Fold each of these.
Amino acid sequence: MRKVLAISLNTFRETVRDKILYTLLVFAFAMIGSAAILIRISVRAEVRILQDLGLTAISIIGVLMATFLGITLVYKEVDRRTIFTIISKPVHRYQFVLGKYLGLLTTLLVSVAAMALGLLLLSRALVSEWTWLLLPAVWLTYVELAVITALATLFSSFTTPALSATFTLSLFLIGRLSGDLVAFLAKASSAAVRAFALGTYYVLPNLHLFNGRGTVALGRFPDPRWVVGATAYGMLYIAFVLSAAVFIFQRRDFK
Amino acid sequence: MDPIIRIEGLTKDYRSGFWRRRVRVLRALSLDVQAGEVFGYLGPNGAGKTTTLKLLMGLIYPTAGRATILGRDTREVDMKAAVGFLPENPYFYDYLTGREFLDYYGRLFALPARVRRERVDRLLHEVGMAHAADLSLRKYSKGMLQRIGLAQALINDPDVVVLDEPMTGLDPLGRKEVRDLILRLKAAGKTIFFSTHIIPDVEVICDRVGIIFVGELVTVGPLETLLGTHLESVEITFSGLPPGDPGVPGGPWARPPVRTAGRTIVAVADQATGNATVRTLVERGATIHSVVPLRRTLEEEFVQQIEERRRAQGVGHLPEHLP
């Protein structure tokens, strides 16, 4: 575990020294800040609009961070041949993949926490009380980002950043729509189409599970069973995707 | 005694091109490296040196055959705890400082913090990088990267050190320092296996040499055996034959005598003729400046072996395709 932590720490250092991270963070704060200004100057100050926009900003910026930092995660080590000095140490390949993944997850945790803190402070400034019900929604967004990071890590372990980005963002979009897609296909008369829909539903990430913004808009805490269930689903899905990444990475020759 | 590195029938094929044709880059390589030895692994570019080293370090998997280091299969990850490795043209994390970089590798060996601190300081000093310890690797020159690379290969105080072209990119002083470092490691009882195409370095520091060409081991053995003990010629430099002397005595000459800056250089084929020539010269009043027995150089041996192999196989530098 110490070796995994060492690789995580190095990956964390690498990503926090990456300019992409700060560009996206600045963009996120600009989005949240401008929403707050808009609400201040509007006739009816509706703090829930700020919270919804803020959560959407955290989600979008988080997905971009997870994707664009994740797609180069393993690829860069192989391309720059830094992998030679890591794999030649007593480090299992699964430890390397896991370390890279956890390192980026730490960076995302810090970034999401910073964005969420900004949003909480702005909400507090507007309504003079802490809006703690934002937190379960932020947590669910973070779990969603962890799933996307796992997908980016998987693609990064065998293909180029351009293809990894395409695959990851495609799966993200499909994952967000998978519930609707399945509901639509389930109405098909053909049993084969229905079976295909069900198979697809289980293989593709079911990302709409992580959307907690609806309950925030309604001004109430989400059902804890849902939060726990969605987290457990996310962790299982991540384990599945990372196992596939390790399976591929384990067989690779580093020429 | 069991060899420290044992390579048995190691073969590696790569898939290449659109049709994924198999290309054999290493052919049934077998060789042993003994404890405490400095083993030089020589070959032209593309011969299979780096492939061999990557197979040893588990970076690629063999198509056939196996290798062991310290009696353990190279596919066992824990085996690497006692091995240090420097890859060819190393690229490192340019966002880390020299100190952070070495500390990271120390962590990969799960070394305690105190040991890491002490070892990082010692190694930075040993490879002459103490002054750049807190500079980010982005600012390092190629030679500095090679030195810090050597330091990372030694962070675990390994019993076996595997170096891929460790002298590449270094100036003459840097090369000498690396040679001295290798000799210090040998004196400390380490076994060193290194690839190179810089032949003079091999002659100075290696106990044994292996020559590889197109994925095949051409020859292997101690330098003396490889180069032979027989003399190619004996070169005598002298001056001061009195005026009126009929000319240079002795012979037959291995090469025609050469006169330069008041001195004459003659070369004879064997030691006995050399001794006789020196005696005659001294009797006639000449001053002897040097008597140098000339042996075959490793470079000559290397070129001859490669040329012979090329002629025999009728191939150039490129590995042949398999059917």
Amino acid sequence: MKATCWVAPQKMEVREVPDPTILNKRDAIVKITSTAICGSDLHLYNGFLPMMEPGDIMGHEFMGEVVEVGSGVDNLKVGDRVVVPFPIACGNCGACKAEAYSLCENSNPNAYIAEKLLGHSPSGIFGYSHLTGGFAGGQAEYARVPFADIGHIKVPEGMTDEQVLFLSDILPTGYMGAEMCGIKRGDTIAVWGCGPVGQFAIASAYMLGAERVIAIDRFKYRLDLAREKAGAITINYEEVDSVPDVLMDLTAGRGPDHCIDAVGVEGHSHGLLYAHDRMKQVLRMQTDRPIALREAILSCRNGGTVSVIGVYTGLIDKFPMNAVMNRSLTIKTGQCHVHRYMKPLLERIQRGDIDPTFIITHTMPLSQAPEGYRMFNNKEDHCEKVVLKA
Amino acid sequence: MGVSTETGMQTTNADTAVIGTALGEQARPRISTTSRYQRIANADRGTGGESLANFLGAFSLGLGLAQVLAPEGMSKICGIKDAEGNRSLMRALGAREISNGLAILSRQQPEKAMWSRVAGDAMDLAMLGKVMANPENDRSRALFATANVLAVTALDVMCAKQLSMQPRTVANEGADKGVIRTKRSITVGKSPEECYAFWHNFENLPQFMRHLESVSVTGERRSHWKAKAPAGKSVEWDAETIEDRPNELISWRSTEDADVYNAGTVSFQKAPGDRGTEVRVELEYKPPLGKLGSKVAMLWREEPGQQVMDDLRHFKQVMETGEILFSDATKQRGMHPAQPDNEPVQL
């Protein structure tokens, strides 16, 4: 089969590789129809996540048709059309029973490595480095899905791939970012980052009852999308002196009730602090640039929530813990527990609460995946979301 | 060698001590609960000497390498006249430093290795005294070297004293006899009864201990174990069950005539709330010298605790999900990209 392989930082290749086979009883093999490039794939593309090996198959947002089922899967049959959640979860352990699927205790075969770096191990993830298990990803013609009996949602008749594909990751991720804020009537939410996850966080905040949502980015086309499609009030941080000052103005000195960081490790900013962060990153004195996170913490109103859904891969500097502690802020975060949200969000799509297709700017064949990565990474041609057709 | 002195089972005066006296009767923790965990915490404590020992071990290694690789330079620093005899002495001293450094870093009886460093310091100081007495050498350099050795000696003595105070714990007990001990634990979401029943049938062990080929029960308390060894070979031994408390604890040990000494205890304790079972394994083994040595060393990889932890993680997977999960990258040993291949799964 054809598969998108990581070769070296900023170098992807579509290669011919062997087809996947059933390895465990609860596996299924899915013939992929649509898959997407995620913002977090760019962290791998740019070499920010450790433990990649040349030849690793990328991709954790995918859907398709079941072509083979293991002996331990009793709720799927050949021909079923499914969307697959990006975290691999067993459904049996303490974390899964508590619906914290991205913390599954049994799905990361390399848990011992993750423990050394993170203290404890999160779940396995498709196509997302050997730190999360070394599972082949879904930017390919076929994928093996472990624990397929709980790791899927069947697509109802009449729905297109594009309508449901983002249930695999970014729609639930954006939604969980808004849900973690505990939004009440009248709340103002600020969202850093207008990539696909940021867009869905904005839309979800409105779905959960926010009065207004303020979106921060530097790309005009992304801000336009956030304003026109998701309904945000937008700030281009390159055009203002200080984002926290503008947020103070907009909220008459209170600050946003809750803040969402949908940026993560590769944040940008202008000015000296950015140069300092970038330099330390290059010198390996810190691995991540927590620019959005710092602003979110400093902007958030007293007693508010900072919800972190942007991906962090290592250590950060100058973390304003004094603000967090003295102003009673709550930090909530996590890789999305996708399984928990797939069904309710599918229902919202069916009801017309949200049309997730609004973020798609590029559709291309799988063979052009390297081109897709380049465009998405460099924000060429107003690229917001690339869908690959296998 | 007391395998059955399983940490949580020993009776100490902690059982009778009352804690939480500032609390009312209602809020006070149960002594039977806290004392058990206090014993585990006590067994894990060190002396604080470990980080200094690591530094001094690395220092020994570095100094030894310099002495072996650049004896002329090291002689010059100490003010010793360059001569063939001096160079080979310097190399010999370097070899001593390297073996000391390795002994300290190996963590097997580090206190003995530290006292050996102190003895080495005394030897160095005596030799430096002779160096200063000989007019052919550079006195001021030798004096400077002596001052440095004295400073390190002070650190060595301090560290050796700290390490010597180390209590006898599961981790270091038996070190005198060349026995390696290790312990690990995991929480499994099943009842102690279920965990015990599965483990108690030793023929199940190869399902989650990847280095075992087979275990067959040969008698009421006896079993025959077969483990994988390098080059397609295998190692075999007989073991006997030495303690068996239903739903609580199993201890086993290789029999007297076995080539490979090893012994283990597994205990099953109900975890708080409905969190399942706390499974704790203590394992000890004696890597024999000679031909078998390398085979057995392979069984537990470099770090004995890592193998036990892998086994326990797999035990949890088998109990909770029915089997061990593989990824494309981990279905075989060694590095492999996250990509399907046509090779079979390698247990």
Amino acid sequence: MEMTCATVREVLPAYVRDGDGSLSVRRHLSRCTECRTDLTHYEDLLGALSSMEAATADPPFALRASLIDIPSRSSRLENVRSHVTENRKAYASGAAVLVAGVLGAAVWKSRKPVTA
Amino acid sequence: MELVERCKAGDEVAWKELVEVTHREVYTLCLRILRDPDDAAEATQDAYLKAWRALKGFRGDAMFTTWLYRVASNTAISKHRSRKRRRTHETGVGDELLGQIAAGGSTESAAGARIEVQDLERALAVLPDHYRSAVVLRDVYGLSIEEIAGQLKISETAAKVRVHRGRKKLKDMLYPASTGEEV
């Protein structure tokens, strides 16, 4: 069955690169100049899109330095993390003493002086 | 590849070289997805941090830049999904972005037709987000449909549909006379 131009144009975005095209699409394209022109436009578009990888934007000035610093930052963070892990008990005890102190101070402050 | 191996061994000088040769492309990829320079810079940072941490797991079965693009696009898409939707392309930010991307002149296809890079960037800027991400990842950075589906968290069929509809919309914008449709 002969395909219409409308049907062929629906499948051209897939046909142009991903090879989704039946024999009847190819047959129609061999006979129809307008649909062939449309296919050429898609081919131009895909060629232009693939060339865009090389067209780059200027990153913000500080970004490059910040990216270069990632290994150092990462290892500093690792050092802190392993230090905390190794001294977990000491930090937990310190935190418990601090919380107890804060609570004690709060209770002491809340006590009203006894008046005669 | 030698550079990547040195990075895997923790060589910070090699990492610096790697950043020098790749960061413009990665930033531009994030910018094309997010359309916001601050968000793109943030996504680039996150992507390189992830790449540094995951570098030891890079087996070299894909090109390093392809792997890095995958990490970057995944990061940019996650960021895009989580941020509040901001309509930037209707308020002139698209034009600001065009100014940032180096004017690459025009590209000539095998058929000899020319498409101005800035016209293409402008058309991409007004393409709806879901089509733009799919087309950029497939046709600019060469990701597979399977990878795009995974990153956008949609089915492969839906990813194909987005790529194809995006291409059609771009073609209609760049060649309005051929369709008889208004841009």
Amino acid sequence: MKKILLFISILGILYSCEDVIDVDLNESESRLVIDASMNLWDDGNFQTTVKLTTTAPFFDEEIPFVNDAFVEIIDENGLILPFVYAENGIYVSTIQPQSGVNYTLKIRYQEEIYTATEQLETVAPLEFVEQKNDGGFTGEDIELKAFFTDPANIENFYFFEGLSVRGASFDALKDEFFDGNQIFGFYFVENIETGDEVIFNLYGIDEQFYNYMFTLLQQSQGDGPFETQPATVRGNIINETNLNNYPLGYFRISEVSTISYTVE
Amino acid sequence: MAFLFLGSIVSFSQEKFTLSGTISENGTGETLIGVNVIIPQLNTGVVTNQYGFYSITLPKGEYEILYSSIGFITEKAVISLSGNIEKSISLNLETESLGEVLIKSDVETLNIRDPQMSTNSLSAATIKKIPVVFGEADVIKSLTLLPGVSSAGEGASGFNVRGGAVDQNLVLLDEATLYNSSHLFGFFSVFNPDAIKDLTLYKGGIPARYGGRVASVLDIYQKDGNLKKFSANGGIGLVASRLLLEGPIKKDTASFLLGGRSSYAHLFLPLFDNDNVAYFYDLNTKISYNLNKNNRFYLSGYFGRDVIGISDSFENNFGNTTLNLRWNHLFSEKLFSNLSIIYSDYYYGLDLKFIGFQFDTGISNLNLKYDFSHFISEKVELRYGLNSIYYKFMAGEISPTSGTSGINAFKLTDKYAFENAIYVETELKLTEKLTVQAGLRFSTFNRMGQDALNIYTNDNPILFNETLQIYQKATPIDTISFSRNKTIKSFANLEPRFSAAYRLNNTSSLKASYNRMAQYIHIISNTTSPTPFDIYAPSGKYIEPQLADQVAIGYFKKFENYSMEVESYYKIVKNRLDYVDDADLIANNAIEQILLTGKARAYGLEFLFKKTTGKLQGWIAYTVSKSEQQTPGRNASEPGINNGDWYDTAWDKTHNIAITAQYELTDKWSFGANLIYQTGRPSTFPSGQYEYNNIVIPVYESRNSSRLADFHHLDLSATWIPKPNSEKRWKGEWVFSVYNAYNRRNAASISFSENTDIGRNEAVRFSIFGIIPAITYNFKF
């Protein structure tokens, strides 16, 4: 639905113009940012990564990595699965997430303990991709739709991404208005051409992550005149040592369906 | 004792008679609002009401009566009052003669005495002289040049009065409520200036006859239609054209008015060469019928729509509809009444063709009003009446628009309510120097039965998660359906209103006022600028009515050719809704799960210096003000919104200066100019950034703690009448205008995001209007 707002903003194109300006910004204190995910692909492959960075001044070009943290995941049976540091703030481990099992992420950084507990969320498979060559505002752009069928009579939430060298499209979806139907994730980036390969991923998520991602995506697009009042979004990870020094980011465990498509 | 009492009655009960009538404009028969009827001998007078009617009761005797109104030649009449007299007269427009205005000071003296303060009236003629963007005369843009009135910015719908929100304004067109006052996101307002007779904006000391909104009342009356002869006027401009026809159906008895206005399709999206459209149109219609001198009927209607579509992916249309029937009846020469039956609705529809998704929403109401004006004596006027409104809130309906659409039909729960009020207000001339206006309004709001009302544990629809420090939606434990006839929640409020004027001398006065206002319906919106898809929701189990208390004081001074007004106000609003961070409001069937209740306050100082006569006319308006909002946590462990601290509203503008001037050089040429300067509006900027899933996300500072750059522009216009003395019926004029003459790039917003092409974060200023020259041809015949 946020696309409505985006479309409305088009009106702004009228007599308006956009230009890049210099703005002096206030600076907030640095926080730990945790991008932690356990993904289980539909072909049985799995991948668990935890990326640790910190917040940075808005106009900085580099995001500082955290390479001196201690990361582990503990399952509900008390089994401890350690992580090793790879590079660029990324810590890796090999865990195959099981359905119905609680996994607790535990990070020790600068003498403070951060934790979050999640379960695997399943997903419906991506089925096919449809290409339309007369889309967009000009009617001449290529639009791709990746279809899937939502399971009926249960609440489902999805995180959708389409990735190619031309750019990425992301969307957070809930089945409130399409429960039980065939529906699609929408991929639209400028300058896409015949022969380009696009990878689509559909992640099973819960309502809390849906709310989180929905807001995040809105904020990443900048706040136009019709955007909601922006505020820093809190994820699901708690600083157990010092509640006020809360981290940003999220710990998510998803089943993922993936499909690759070559633009015709 | 009894003797003394009797004696005093006798001395007061010297024979009295009533002089009454209707004042109209000569040539058109259009009734005139606010004409001063002055009796210099007694140093007293009255003013005609919204229907041009006046009534004054005086001791038997011979009097000279002056009928005067700005822009009209004052008429004199000598009356021998030895019985009730009906004296209806017509006034001639000043411009149609070459003579100077006869008496002006008396007019202003009366205003000095009137306890009504904090109002601004504009005539259609003034509005048409003010230069505006695209050369289209505009009611709301003209209002924002007055002290205490502003808008959130270019491209924002509606207007803000004394720090109030857009939904806190009651906008009445011929007594019918309009829910959206803007076309094309605030680029135009919905009122066709040709169809308007008179408008008054009440910013404070709001009389008891008005209610339902806490910040202001904008009361607009349309013309009745020419009773004497057929006439037309219109204009052709670069973005829109308009035509207004009026004339007698039966001379001096019945008249019609038909006005239409439309912008040109496609105009707004010139960059694209296919099926994109963005346009608006509106229609004003009215039929007036004078059955006899005691009974008049008016049937009027308004229909406006905006249509915005982007190729075949998206279409959006919205607008107001009103229809109303009014009956003016004189029970006696002292008792005037008006009965209105009004239907009003606002519709918003969205068709997302690329998804196959249609969304319709809106609000409609049926309103019955019965108002009485009782002119008891020359010292006492009593007004009383009742008002009953039945609302239907159509929260929204989602439907699939194609067979292949993946969307399920879904209807959000409709809501119903009754708003009733009775009021009485009186104006008393207590002494030669002190006049007071006191009123009391008793309003009630009954939320009527609906389907599927959510019930929550402890009646608490919104929970606070202490570990994550975020607000979360509660899950309803049950839903209950009620019969439409059953009241599920009711509210009642007493709303006292009081104002007083103390005349210091013949040219200056002090005024003070207090008003309490209750507002039972609320716009649900958390966008930084108001938008047309902001929908009203009623008070009920989970939403309390807003209550405002406002006090204002003022000093008013009239000079030979100038007037000066200084006012100060303080206002506090209880139960102002606020939204938890990142609430998603669109098609939300459980709005209570994301709402918190707080309060708002506003205070300020307003100056208005006005020159109302001569070749050079205009005003300087300056406002220094503050508008804030606070939403504390509901208990000690909750932070509320913005940590429970007061924060600036999105329309808080510390300084607001508007200078507007018109200069009549010759019969052929006249010029106009506006200079506007405002403090930039508050905004929330990033205070950092981070990456999640390879997406750059801003970290935000607390709400509205930064500001956009100051907003200012200069607008110029020139009007050329090629043949001012032409005897021909057809009269034409050309208006050349330049909006934002020095091409200031005022930011409507600043967007902070990553430029993915270069992989760097940027602040992008979005400005709407650069320099815009325009030309309009206006005509009448």
